[in-house]
Amino acid sequence: MTTPLLEVRKLRKHYPISKGEARWLTELRAWANHTTAHITKLHAVDGVSFTIQPGESVGLVGESGCGKSTLVSLINRLIEPTDGEILFEGKDIAGMSVAEFNRDPMRGAIQVVFQDPHDSLNPRFTAFDCIAEPLRRLTEVRNGELKTRVEELATQVGLPPELLGRLPHQLSGGQKARVNIARALASRPKLLVLDEPTSALDVSVQAVILQLLDDLRRQYGISYLFVSHDLNVVRLLCDRVIVMYLGQVAESGPADQVFEQPAHPYTQALISSIPKPGDKAGEGRTRLTGEPRSPVDPDPNQCLFHGRCPRGEARCAQTQPVLKDVGPGHIAACHFAAKVDPQPAAAVEARQKA
Amino acid sequence: MKQPLLTVEDLTVEFQTRAGIVQVLDRINLTLHKGETLAVVGESGSGKSVGAFSIMGILDPAARIRSGSIRFDGMDLLTSSAGDLNTVRGREMAMIFQSPATALNPIRKVGQQIEDVLRRHGPVTRREARRRAVEALAQVRIPDPERRYHAYPFELSGGLCQRVMIAIALCCQPRLLIADEPTTGLDVTTQAAIMDLVRDLGRERNMATMLITHDLALAAQYADRIMVMHAGQVVETAPTDALFSQAAHPYTAGLMKATPTEASSLDELKAIPGSLPDLKGSLPPCRFAGRCERRESRCDDPGLALAAVGTDDLHRVACRRPL
After folding, report:
1. Please, which residues 49-68 of chain A have a Cβ atom closer than 8 Å to chain B?
2. Among A12-21, A180-189, B137-146, B270-279, the range of highest mean pLDDT
3. B191 and A273: CB-CB below 8 Å?
4. Chain-centre distance of CA A163, in angstroms?
């Protein structure tokens, strides 16, 4: 087995939050009482582990507030993790400080495409400047070759080179998305993190961008971590899917299998919430009630999904389920997750038809 | 045939900008009956929201209504006085706006914001208004409504804010609800819950709903009829099933091919070439012509109108070469 491109081990990000009194006061009081201070913490990412193989495309799904974007920032080393390891090609980058990582050659190897194609471009930079910026900062490309390289990148993502002189507000949504992708590709990354790259685009444009991303992956063998809440999009682009709930991994496995036979009740609810033409009545679908629990100091002896879960039994309120194998490469954190059928009849039939 | 609740006829709206006149809506026609759900679908910039704003009478000052009429239950909304409009708006017809975080007043408790609407539309005592506000919050299935009455919008999640918006819209029991992208930016699970809520409340009260969305799959699941708009024109209107079994306009078919579904593979996805035409200056009769693969010379002849597809009078398309 080759070394994975990215391996994340027990990664945590906790944010201390103040509850009425200043933290130094809490600490002082604890010191005076000879106890350890209890500081209230928001568990944004709480012990997440996964791997990405070279050339693999992994989808990350979950509702807003589940820690997807925090995880993206952690992997890109934009924020400091509380605890855990991030191994990139076997080298731990979690220990490095953010400032140190910025000057590391590894910086160019992990790049990110941010959510909003408009807000993530500098309004005073032309498309050319946007794409040239990482080349200037992270690569050896210098003035002479800069122009050719930027034009090459623009062509790669299907942006007409004539548009390179334009400012972001003079470009359409699809064109801005392309500038963002070209910028991320400029330093020839090995891992591209895509944080909802198409959520701000119309469907007619989304289709081209998705196809472009798929082509780029095939052509250059880049690995993707694709964050999205559109499950139909994830299904199209990803080999594997990770489902997050309240900062933890609820389920992860091969995309086909997770979609065909979701093992975690949360995944089941997610999948049945996708609107489907023709499914007018919508009855018999798993519906979630209520809101997710607060990520502030979650009870370690309770399933995170307890209270919203349609199943919710006594056991769920007493012990937190651990991730367990439910199939080849397929894990789920539920006491009641049953083993999935490795070769479901329906899936095989569908594949034969195709 | 029953009298429709809402009739829009030949509505044409322009915006005056520094760069010239932008022709935002071009002869829009629509009818909506009691208890019916109509979805208006199209890309951003197709005029969906402007249509809704015209009906509600809350267009931007730069907008000018060139022609057409909007009739709501026998009342002509375009010629009515501002006072008459104010009594109808909020009570008889209500709107849910796109982003709940910006549509709600950030410095007023959500309960008070519901009370504001109740007190504006009828003599209610303070205590009665308060009781009804809590009731409205409970009706949109907000857990613990007594406590949430005192919450400010920033204390609530996106899904809860949207429920408050719905509570505000529905507290006076309107007969027409316009929901402008009610679930954009929300998670799929929340989206499903909000849409189920709108549908169930609509059914309970026999309310007419106009659902504005860019998501064809969402429209298909919740609407009885779908109206597809492109660049300010209605290109096709049909009962949901008919539209999906037999889309007649190339744009509708294009949208369907571009929307990823459960069964589609990446190669099957097909983007619609080009982008919306510039709505300033002179435009061809069919504004889709520049992006259309089936374009012919007769597409440029003037006088394009919605015509019935086959024998079905409800399924109408504005195309000279329908599929």
Report:
1. 63-65
2. A180-189
3. yes
4. 30
Mutation target to probe the A interface, by most A beta carbons within 10 A, among B189, B224, B228, B293 is: B189
**Mean pLDDT, range B280-300, rounded to an integer:** 88
Beta strands at A83-88 and A91-92: parallel, antiparallel or unpaired = antiparallel
Nearest to B229 by CA among B34, B63, B103, B51: B51
- The DSSP secondary-structure symbol of A338 reads P
Looking at residue B98, the DSSP 8-state letter turns out to be S
Q: Model's pTM, two decimal places?
A: 0.84
Q: What is the Cα–Cα distance from B188 to A242, expressed in whole angstroms? A: 16
Decide if A191 contacts A160 (C-beta within 8 A): no
Residue B106, in any domain of the structure: no
Q: Does A216 touch chain B (CB under 8 A)?
A: no
Helical segments of chain B, H only: 48-56, 82-88, 100-103, 110-120, 126-139, 145-148, 158-170, 188-205, 216-222, 240-245, 250-258
> Are residues B218 and B191 in contact, defined by beta-carbon separation less than 8 angstroms?
yes
- In this structure, the number of other CB atoms found within 10 A of the CB of residue B257 comes to 17
* Tens digits of residue pLDDT in B208-239: 999 999 888 899 999 999 999 999 999 999 99
Q: What SS3 class is residue B302?
A: coil
Residues B57, B82: Cα–Cα separation, whole Å: 9
At residue B134, does pLDDT exceed 80?
A: yes
State how far the Cα of A287 lies from the Cα of A268, in Å rounded to an integer: 9
How far is Cα of residue A64 from the mean position of the Cα atoms in its chain?
12
H or E stretch at A268: helix A265-272
B234 belongs to a structural domain = yes
Dihedrals phi, psi of A7, to nearest 5 degrees: -130, 125
Picking from B323, B268, B229, B171, the residue whose alpha carbon sits closest to that of residue B28 is B229
* Mutation to test the A interface, candidates B157, B181, B186, B266, most A Cβ within 10 Å: B266
Is A10:A85 a contact under the CB 8 Å cutoff? yes
Quote the number of domains for chain B. Answer: 1
Is the pLDDT reported for residue A154 higher than 90? yes
Amino acid present at B294 = R
Q: For residues A26 and A36, give the distance between their C-alpha atoms in angstroms, rounded to a whole number.
A: 10
- CATH number, position B21: 3.40.50.300
Task: State yes or no: pLDDT of B24 exceeds 60.
Answer: yes
Contact between residue B248 and residue B288 where contact means Cβ atoms under 8 Å apart: no
ipTM of the complex: 0.80
pLDDT over threshold 60, residue A192: yes
Neighbouring CB atoms inside 10 A of A115's CB total 19
Q: Is residue B188 part of a domain?
A: yes
All residues of chain A having their beta carbon less than 8 Å from the beta carbon of residue B240 are 277, 280
Model pLDDT for residues A303-331, shown as the tens digit of each residue: 888 888 888 788 888 888 989 899 888 99
- State the residue range of the domain holding B223: 6-92+174-317
Residue A241 φ/ψ region, left for φ over 0, alpha for ψ in the -120 to 50 degree band, beta for the rest: beta
Asked if residue A320 lies in contact with residue A302, where contact means CB atoms within 8 angstroms, the answer is yes
Residue B182 forms part of a structural domain: yes
DSSP three-state, residue A38 = coil
Return d(Cα A354, Cα A289) in angstroms, integer. Answer: 37
The position carrying tokens 């609740």 is B5
